[in-house]
Amino acid sequence: MESDGGGWRNDELMQALTDEETAAVHRVYLAASDQHDFLMWEHTKSGDFTVRSAYHLEMQRQSGNEGASTPDPKTPLWKRIWGAGVPQRVKNLVWRAMRNALPTMHTLASRGVPIDPRCPRCGESAETMEHLVLQCEDSKMLWLTSPARLSDENRECESFTEWCITMSKKCTMHRAWEILMMFIWKAWSLRNMWTFERKRVSTRIACDKTMMLLGEYEAALVRDETPKPPIEPQECRWQTPTLAPYKLNIDAAVREGMIGLGMVVRDREGDTLMTAGRKVATDCLALQAEAEAMYFGLTYAFDAGYRSVEAESDCLQLVQLLRTEHRMRNATQRPCNKVVHAIARSSLSMSEETVWMDDQPDNISALVTSDKASLS
Ligand SMILES: [Zn+2]
């Protein structure tokens, strides 16, 4: 390699190696900037290893579907799932459940994981998708209490996928399919809550929360359909990071005796990798609040493994103070910071700190999409 790291010394390579080996060396990517080497896991956007991504990879490999997991778009059920008026995470979950791609105890055991295949809640039978969503006692209660009012007979099936197909045909009334999808998702989250946190919530509360979430999502859809303001001029739009692989936007919202902190980490495509919000009871000036938000954002991003981020704030005074010691982007204008501004504002009304990994709260989805759409 050249002493400045800028390229390979071809003459030396050709003397020491065969043509094939030289070609292989040339395929090694050399960083354009003077940065340290680091290890990356290529199957997550952040480059960090997660068990979830490894599990997906293995499932794709086993089904011989690596790199081409897009299902046949003509399948009616596929269309029903992806066209449903429910949050994206619910669609993802139902889709994975239908393909038997969720790590139930039975699935894990059948893949060779040394684990008890029985249901962790009742221990009565193997934890298959059918048992987990339809047969386990807690799920039975959930379905009976839900607006779907599914009786025993309606929950009988050969396989979960078969049941989804049958139900998608039966659900012809307005919202019926959406409600069904929401409760499949809820059954899975209640199961996780018990399995990993040993927490149980009352069926009535679970039903109310699920229907509330669906209502909020529908209300947000209506809001999205109202005319949008014209696209802001170039200099006011969110820009992709140029100094680091990820961009961290932070903001603070101040209300009497209270500040709401918000942070969002996005990649070069403008996709959200992490968002977090937190409410702090304190009386402080706007500058202090912005500094709190910066500290909050940097700490949380660092803890989540984002070590090389470009930080951006819309508080010019804070940026000027920080610029003396750190590499920091210019202050951005408020419209560029609208996603994180929304997070900071909504964290004022949250009772506890919230962190979203590889996902985002529904109330910022439209703003993220609009930022992505305006990327030049
Ligand atoms: Zn069970």
From TrEMBL:
UniProt source species: Spinacia oleracea
Which domain of life does this protein belong to? Eukaryota
Q: Tell me which PANTHER family the record gives.
A: BNAC02G40300D PROTEIN, RNASE H TYPE-1 DOMAIN-CONTAINING PROTEIN
Name listed for the protein in its UniProt record: Reverse transcriptase zinc-binding domain-containing protein
Organism taxonomic ancestry? Eukaryota, Viridiplantae, Streptophyta, Embryophyta, Tracheophyta
Q: Where is the RNase H type-1 domain?
A: 251-344
Database matches in Gene3D superfamilies:
Ribonuclease H-like superfamily/Ribonuclease H
Q: Reverse transcriptase zinc-binding domain: from which residue to which, for each copy?
A: 49-143
One Pfam family cited in the UniProt record for this chain: RVT_3
